[in-house]
Specification:
The complex is a heterodimer of chains A (about 350) and B (about 650).
Chain A (H helix, E strand, L loop, with lengths): L1 H12 L21 E5 L9 E6 L4 E3 L2 H6 L7 E7 L2 E6 L4 E6 L5 E5 L5 E8 L2 E6 L4 E5 L6 E6 L15 E4 L2 E6 L5 E6 L4 E7 L4 E6 L4 E6 L14 E6 L5 E6 L7 E5 L5 E6 L1 E6 L24 E4 L6 E5 L6 E7 L5 E9 L1 E6 L1
Antiparallel strand pairs in A: 1-2, 1-27, 2-3, 4-5, 5-6, 6-7, 8-9, 9-10, 10-11, 12-13, 13-14, 14-15, 16-17, 17-18, 18-19, 20-21, 21-22, 23-24, 24-25, 25-26
Chain B lengths: L1 H13 L33 E4 L1 H6 L5 H8 L3 E4 L6 E4 L8 E5 L2 E2 L20 E6 L13 E6 L8 E10 L3 E11 L3 E12 L4 E4 L6 E4 L5 E14 L2 E15 L13 E18 L3 E20 L6 E24 L2 E18 L6 E21 L2 E12 L2 E14 L7 E11 L3 H5 L11 E16 L2 E22 L7 E23 L5 E15 L20 E11 L2 E10 L20 E2 L2 E10 L2 E10 L18 E11 L1
Parallel strand pairs in B: 4-7
Antiparallel strand pairs in B: 1-6, 2-3, 4-5, 6-7, 8-9, 8-32, 9-10, 10-13, 11-12, 13-14, 14-15, 15-16, 16-17, 17-18, 18-19, 19-20, 20-21, 21-22, 22-23, 23-24, 24-25, 25-26, 26-27, 27-28, 28-29, 28-30, 30-31, 31-32
The chains are: A mainly beta (about 350), B mainly beta (about 650).
Chain lengths: ~350, ~650
């Protein structure tokens, strides 16, 4: 029996192992330039992360959130905005917002209990909106205290689909426009003074992104859904809507099978950019869709094209996220406004959004 | 840690042995025991391992996922206690493991996989693994290997009743009842079980900024099942009918880092009804079997926010699969050294998959016929050399795959047939699952089957002296699989994923297993066993110039997997230690490692069981106390999913046998 106990002790001795805790890393991102890259990660993996890139020193720091705050970011980080030296990071499938100091990445607070948050828009220092894919409501919170202060109901009980999901937001005067992407074709109009839904604009199927130009025209990309969708499948489109009259002024259609996305605008708000495998550029005065891509993707077949697009609101430089196979560290390429490649660097898994300081 | 693994592996390579189940002296009703390594002509040149009945007895209140995880080189990817568990054989995907119950294939036609957490060990009499190309004997598609689960008649059982009750931590209760009777010509056996748990284990949530001690929520499960068997034999003929009904209701907890969001209800209900009827006729030189089976399964999956103010159903899917299988097997054994087998299998399946999450259903209906013909010959060329050759011809989805061959040879290095070398070379293919082909959106009807070539070489040995037996085996394997199916973001940038034949994958490695059995003068019986497998599975095609995944290990497949098992019996007392090891697993395709990258650390778990047996002639009882995760190891099997620390269970078994 002694031998046996000795053997057991020996075997157990092999099992011990130690983990060393990881030290907190302190960052100093003060200064006016720099971009946070929101890496989505994979759905139900919880491997999203935040990267920071300084275009002057060309230095990139990955995993800044976890390194500074000692916890992973969450499951599917969707978007980020910077307001008043605070970074609001929307973590979609974790149903929460993490707020950091945008100069140090230090955790400042959180907003929890959300369903499927997508984007944040700050109205003023007392009021900001959070859109949601599933909740059929917009959550109102105070961006100074991080307290939730109310909701705006956007449910559409008449539809046979779960409407309305809300996505991006743009503001014209006191009105906030938000596009309804999932099985939907509406742009909702909300009065930010009263927090009431005041109007809606019918567009083409599945508006996925929008911007507002220097002439107060709202540009919207619709992706048309997917083949076999119960909501239907149609050619993707690009629409120009007058923000004042809410009338569609111009409509451009893509070839069936094209899937344009990620509409952006340059700082002077006279040229729009979007992804459709390649990067396309179009002046707001154009009457036709561009024929040649502005920046061509090197991909020829599967896992094609660029995944995300961002434009520096000061330098007009273009940032392109390439998710490669969506299972490894993605690549970000930085181009001058002329389309010339300046730099490229590795970030986290599936770089999906850019937040410029 | 790697060093420790290698050390353990080496220790057990030296002191090793093959284990059979004959050492028990009490009245545990051992069923027919197949001793691994015996030269059966129909298994000649095939890499087949049987999990012995002792292991099954030890794990009687567990599921097959836990049994395979502890007693085989198969890697089980488990989503947590009570949650889904899939098997990866020799570093391949879960859909590359085929599972048969009494000859009926159990893999889901839609997903191609099997959830091993749904099968209780209590419902099985025999389980064996066909590794690599040897799996072609049972059917095609198992690029990694096959798991064969069988039920057998106990012709000596006049009347027996057995009841097992387990009470476990986290409000877990398991009950099993077995009733058998017969007269040697006709036998009945009924098994029922129930397994339910609140699964509310505590864990420290370190995946959020504001860390806290948490109690697992929404992880409850309830499983229940019935297995009825009837056997009849007359002269050289026998018939059997088996019916297996099963239901499982499970809630799925959210990721540790998503517990601060709105509450989410995520649950799944699985219902299965399977039946198989077989008629066998055995003559001196031939065997004929006719088998017919029906397999029906229903799966409901639901994910929603439960808040009535804010209710949103993101998924409400109802999947139904029905398949009707017929099989004819004929074996002709003209002499002891030669056997031929023919088998014709036809199967008709109907599936329906719909998700009513977006209110209006999205999904597909499909039906298909498949045919498979097996021709095989086993030949003993020399007293020490046996060979086998088989080929299958398959027909599915209007596609003919005419020639899927496998060649095997076994050479005994000594006259006592204790040491041997085995070789197997084969081609295999795996047809895409129906979801791969038709799922909306993203299914790709133009997918080609995954096509593989594989080979393995095995050395087996056994040594016996006085009261000590050592045995073991070591296998080297390699396979190259082309047209490996991958789901990836849509080519056109659409907001969904789609399936493509994207990769060429090279899987290679070794499997070793070894055991030792010793009886000391003091009457103490020792039993030691170890398994170790190394599987490197890498992507040989990279997508673009910046793609760093080429040559890297596929995600969630550990390179190292091991298990140690120690057992000691002294009079009526016994002590068992089971220690499975899971190596490091990557969760990114480029295998990047840094302080913050999401690499899953390797871990050992140690389970300890102490028990006593009571024997009163016709009555028998067994009481055991089990400690799971004895060292309270903090580990993650899947990224950001909470796992329990140390926990306990008490099992009482009472049996009467006439």
């Amino acid at each position: 029996m002694k031998n046996f106990l000795f053997l057991i002790i020996c075997v157990l001795g092999l099992f011990s192992c130690a983990k060393s805790p990881i030290d907190t890393v302190f960052f100093d991102f003060t200064g006016n330039s720099g971009v946070y890259i929101v890496n989505e990660g994979n759905f139900m993996y919880g491997n999203s992360s935040l990267s920071f890139y300084d275009p002057i020193t060309k230095r990139v720091v990955n995993h800044v959130f976890q390194a500074r705050n000692g916890a992973p970011l969450g499951d599917v980080a969707q978007s980020m905005i910077i307001w008043n030296n605070l970074g609001f990071i929307v973590i979609n499938n974790s149903g929460k917002i993490y707020i950091i100091d945008s100069s140090t990445a230090e955790y400042k607070g959180q907003i929890t209990g959300l369903s499927s948050p997508r984007y944040i828009h700050v109205i003023n220092s007392q009021k900001a909106y959070i859109t949601d894919l599933y909740a059929r409501k917009i959550t109102i919170f105070n961006p100074t205290t991080f307290e939730k202060t109310g909701i705006i109901k956007v449910g559409n009980s008449k539809s046979e689909f779960n409407q309305h999901s809300t996505e991006q937001m743009i503001q014209y005067k006191n009105l906030v426009f938000t596009n309804c992407w999932s099985y939907d074709n509406k742009i909702l109009v909300i009065d930010s003074n009263t927090d009431q839904l005041v109007d809606s604009i019918e567009v083409l199927k599945q508006p996925n992104s929008m911007v507002i130009d220097r002439n107060n025209k709202i540009w919207v990309i619709t992706d048309g859904g997917f083949e076999g969708s119960p909501y239907g499948y149609e050619q993707a489109g690009l629409l120009k809507i007058d923000a004042e009259t809410r009338e569609i002024e111009r409509s451009f259609r893509f070839t069936l099978g094209d899937h344009p996305l990620n509409l952006c605008i340059n700082p002077s708000k006279d040229t729009i950019f979007f992804l459709n495998r390649h990067v396309w550029k179009m002046a707001v005065s154009e009457k036709r869709l561009p024929e040649k891509p502005f920046i061509a993707s090197e991909y020829t077949s599967s896992t094609g094209g660029f995944y995300s697009l961002g434009i520096d609101p000061v330098s007009s430089e273009i940032y392109l996220g390439d998710a490669i196979d969506h299972r490894q560290n993605g690549m970000v390429r930085r181009y001058a406004s002329s389309g010339k490649l300046i730099d490229e660097f590795k970030v986290g898994i599936s770089p999906g959004d850019f937040a410029f300081k | 840690m790697n060093f420790k693994v290698i050390l353990c592996g080496m220790l057990f390579m030296i002191f090793t042995e093959e284990l059979s189940a004959q050492k028990l002296t009490d009245t545990i009703p051992l069923r027919e025991v197949t001793i691994y390594g015996k030269a059966k002509i129909e298994e000649a040149g095939m890499m087949v391992t049987h999990i012995d009945t002792m292991a099954m007895q030890q794990m009687k209140t567990q599921t097959i996922s836990e049994l395979l995880s502890s007693y085989s080189p198969v890697f089980i990817k488990s989503y947590g206690r009570g949650s889904a568990a899939t098997a990866s054989f020799r570093g391949t995907a879960p859909s590359h493991t085929q599972v048969y119950w009494n000859g009926i294939k159990l893999n889901s036609l839609m997903s191609g996989i099997v959830d091993f957490s749904l099968f209780p060990v209590y419902f099985i009499d025999d389980i064996s693994l066909q590794h690599g190309g040897s799996s072609l004997q049972s059917g095609s598609g198992a690029l990694g290997g096959s798991v064969l689960i069988n039920n057998k008649a106990d012709w000596n059982d006049r009347f027996s009743i057995r009841y097992v009750q387990t009470v476990e931590s986290f409000n877990t209760y398991k009950e099993y009842l077995n009733l058998g009777f017969g007269n040697g010509r006709i036998q009945f056996k009924t098994r029922v079980f129930s397994d339910r748990s609140k699964n509310d284990f505590p864990f420290f949530n370190y995946a959020v900024v504001e860390k806290y001690m948490a109690i697992q929520k929404n992880a409850e499960y309830e499983k229940a099942g019935l297995l009825q068997e009837i056997y009849y034999r007359y002269k050289n003929q026998s018939v059997s009918a088996k019916l297996w009904g099963y239901q499982s209701d499970r809630n799925f907890p959210q990721l540790m880092l998503s517990l601060d969001g709105a509450e989410i209800t995520e649950k799944q209900k699985d219902q299965n009804l399977r039946s198989v009827f077989s008629w066998k006729m055995t003559n001196t030189k031939s065997k004929f079997e006719c088998l017919t089976g029906l397999n029906m399964s229903w799966l409901y999956y639901y994910r929603a926010s439960p808040d009535p103010q804010d209710k949103f159903v993101s998924s409400d899917s109802r999947n139904k699969e029905q398949s009707f299988t017929n099989q004819l097997n004929y074996s002709w054994i003209p002499k002891e050294t030669l056997s031929f087998d023919w088998s014709l299998n036809t199967s008709y399946s109907v599936v329906s998959a719909f998700d009513k999450g977006p209110k209006v259903g999205v999904g597909y209906d499909h039906d298909q016929w498949t045919f498979s013909l097996l021709n095989s010959v086993h030949l003993q060329l020399l007293p020490q050399l046996t060979t086998s050759f088989l080929f299958r011809s398959d027909y599915y989805q209007a596609r003919m795959i005419g020639f899927i061959p496998s060649f095997g040879a076994e050479y005994w290095l000594d006259k006592k047939q204790l040491c041997s070398l085995k070789l197997n070379l084969s081609r295999n293919y795996h047809q895409p699952s129906l979801n791969d082909l038709y799922y909306i959106p993203g299914g790709n009807p133009n997918l080609k089957p995954e096509d593989g070539f594989s080979g393995d070489l095995t050395y087996t040995y056994k040594w016996t002296e006085d009261m000590t037996t050592l045995s073991g085996q070591i296998t080297g394997f390699a396979s190259l699989i082309d047209n490996w199916i991958v789901w990836h973001p849509a080519d056109n940038g659409g907001n969904y994923w789609e399936a493509s034949n994207l990769r060429k994958v090279f899987a290679r490695g070794i499997e070793t297993q070894a055991s030792a059995q010793m009886k000391l003068a003091s009457g103490v019986l020792f039993n030691l066993r170890g398994y170790y497998s190394y599987s490197a599975t890498s992507n040989m095609d990279a997508v673009s110039s910046v793609d760093e995944s080429r040559g890297k290990q596929l995600i969630y497949i550990p390179k190292h997997k091991a298990n140690l098992f120690v057992e000691s019996d002294f009079k009526a007392y016994y002590l068992k230690i089971n220690a499975p090891f899971t190596g490091k697993r990557y969760t990114s395709s480029n295998n990047v490692e840094s302080d913050y990258e999401t690499v899953l650390n390797p871990y050992w778990l140690v389970d300890l069981t102490i028990g006593k047996k009571f024997d009163w002639k016709a009555f028998f009882a067994d009481v055991s106390l089990n400690v799971e995760n004895l060292l309270n190891t903090d580990y993650m099997a899947i990224l950001n999913r909470a796992m329990p620390g140390r926990y306990y269970s008490l099992t009482v078994q009472i049996q009467f046998k006439k």
